[in-house]
Each structure stands twice: as structure tokens, then as C-alpha cells.
Amino acid sequence: MAGLAIPGDAILQSTHAVEAEVPATVESLARQHGVLVFRIAYSILRNHHDAEDAAQECFLRVLKYGRELAHVRNTKTWLARIAWTVALDRRPRRTTLSGQQTSDADNESLLDQLPGHALPADEQLAGKQMQKILERTIATLPNDLRQTLELSTVQELNSAEIAEVLEIPEGSVRTRLMRARKLLKEKLSRLLEVKKHG
Amino acid sequence: MAEPEKDQHLDKMLDSLLADYSSAEPRPGFETRILAWVQQRQRRKLTLGWIFAGGLTTAGAVLAITLNQRTTLPEPPAIITSATSVPAVVRPAREAVRGAAGVKLRAPEAPTPVVAEVKQEVFPSPTPLTEQEKMLLQYLRATPREEVVAQSHPDKPVEVLDPNDDQTYSPMFRPATQQVSNTK
After folding, report:
1. Chain B nearest C-alpha distance from A55 (Å)
2. pLDDT tens digits, A45-83
3. Quick one: which of A87, B35, B97, B126 has the most CB atoms within 10 Å?
4. Residues B64-86: tens digit of each pLDDT
5. ipTM of the complex
6. Start-end of H helices in B101-181
7. pTM exceeding 0.80
8. How far, CA to CA in Å, does B70 sit from each of B63, B66, B67, B74, B76?
């Protein structure tokens, strides 16, 4: 969803916020973009509680760097970038190769647990198990692809805004998304094949 | 299932899964919780800031007082009414001093101690108030300003007397004319 770019000084004016009244700005931003911040954090941390903590820390940073708002061109992407950085800081580190192998094995076991082996796979898509499989599959992607894909799943951000958050050209965002989707499809296809053939 | 169909099917599945991937909604009261938490942190920060500022001010004041006490000049010395311990310069005793040629030289005067002037720290030197000045000060403190102003009278203008005018100029103060010259 394309977001309306609101310059920082407009926010400051609209909230009558001067330097001493930064909390008014924070309040305005929290009401306007609170859900966006939460979803960005959730897309990375995959946990309600952690996402909320990250959102709190994000707004605390806004409070700390509130004076920079006057120079911010697009508050939405500025806030999104803060949320993204905070969430990345909170995400536990993972090991690349061993993590991928474990993830594939876990996914196969999760597929085995899916209810109704006789049912076609598309009827089982909405299930939480498939979401977990997707999470684990996304976790095996290379960092640059994974981060782009995670941000793209946040409805409030379009590709231009994702590019601004990641500080890369918009074309690179599209390329990364295509590559990420291709990899995901291959992995999911392989998993579903394994499940189908028992 | 044919390959293109399978691919299409996977695309749909992926779209569906990714759409739900970050569609989580925060729990009710999320904004309120965040704002309350931010305000709490802000208050704590302000309190800590005030405590820090207070501590800094106190430390600064203590430091300033300490430095001031070290660098304060000593009290100006009391008014010296007698000769101080400045060494006196003693001139040679009066006795006949004869030169090499046997000429009697003028005998120097008796030795007189020369007292060096002691410079005071403050000029003019502070002197204690006299009884009259103390009484005047007391009167001025006790009396309202308006009353003091009302009781004060301007000085009478000074009359300049004409020495040629006999009526105004008293003969008592007429300058005496010198009749005889004292010089020979």
C-alpha cells in the first residue's frame, strides 16, 4: 500500500510540537504509524510480545532523535527504518548452513504432522503449520533476499518505500523479490514433492 | 499435474502465505501502552536529568566556594597610626669629619630616623565613622525619605561683596594698604 509521504516539519507543525514537546510528536506518530511499526517488527521477530517490545523501543528512539524530525522528508520511511533496525538488533543470530539443514528437516517433520494426508495440499495452505514452514524456509534465504522479502510482506510498504528503508535502488528491491520468490517456490515445491511421495 | 499448472498453483500458494505472513494485528490498547511506556521513560529521564543537574550545580557551588576561599585576598590591615617595622635609614652621626686636605667639612645633623610610608591596600583608607556620622546614618535609616526631603533646605546663594561699595563691604575686612616698604 502506497503511503502518503508527510514531511517531518509538517508533523511537528500539526502537533504544535516544539523542541520541549517531543512527546506530542511521538504520540502523533504512534497513532499514525503504530501498526506499521508493529508489523515491521513482527515480520522479523515473528512474535507478538517481541514485536511490541521492539515497537516501544522504536518510539523511544523517536523520542531521543525527535529533533531530527524537522529535517526528515518522509516520516513514514524514517520510522520504518528505525523499526527495522531495532527489530534486526533484537533478532537472534542464526547459523547459515547448519540452520538451513535443520530447517529442511524440521519442515519435513512439520509436513508429516499436517492433518489429512489424503487432502490436496492447497486445502491445507491456510493452516498454521504451513505458515511455520514458510517462516523456516524464509529463514534459510540469504540475508539480503530475506530482509527485502520480509519488508515486502508488510502491507503498508510499497517497493519504493522498501528501497528507501534498505537504502538501495528500487530496481534492486524488485530483483531481490523475484529471486527470493523463486528460491521459496523451489524449496516449497521440493517439500511438497517429498510429502506427496511419502 | 502439468508443470505450468503446478507453477501457477505454487505462485498462488506463496501469495496467500506471504499475505498472511505479516498481517498480524497488535493486541488491543497497543498505542496506549506504547505512549504510556514512552511517557514513563520520558518522566524518568527528566527526573534523572534534574537529579544530575542538581548534583552538578551543588558540586559546582562547592568547588566555587572552595576556590574562592583559597584565592580571597587577606583583610586590609588596620590603620597604622605609628611607625611600623620598616627599617629606619640611619644617617651618619654628627661629628667633625675632616677631609684629606684638613678642611673642616660641614658636620652632618643628628641621625633622624626616616619612616617609610606604608601603602594601604584600599585607597582611601577605611576609617571608622565618627559619632556624628553614626547619628546621621541612624537618623536617615529611621526617617522616611519624604520627611528627610521635606526637612532639607537648599543652601543660600553666596553673596559676592564689592570692595568699593562701602555700604555692603565692611571696613573690618577692608585690606590694609601697605604704607612702608620693609625692604631696604
Report:
1. 8
2. 988 999 999 999 999 888 888 777 788 888 899 999 999
3. A87
4. 988 888 776 666 556 655 555 55
5. 0.70
6. 131-142, 145-151
7. no
8. 11, 6, 5, 10, 16
The SS3 call for residue A171 is: helix
Using the 8-state DSSP alphabet, how is residue B175 labeled? P
Amino acid at A147: Q
Give dist(CA A194, CA A136) in Å, integer.
17
Q: Which residues of A134-152 are buried (b: 16+ CB within 10 A; e: fewer)?
A: bebbbbbbeeebbbbbbbb
Q: How many angstroms separate the Cα of B183 from the Cα of each of B177, B180?
A: 16, 9
- Per the CB < 8 A criterion, the answer to whether A75 and A29 are in contact is yes
Enumerate the residues of chain B whose CB falls inside 8 A of the CB of residue A63: 38, 41-42
- B8, closest residue in chain A (CA to CA): A185
C-alpha cell at A7: 514531511
Choose the mutation target among B9, B23, B27, B34 for the interface with A, i.e. most A CBs under 10 Å.
Answer: B34
Report the SS3 class of residue A92: coil
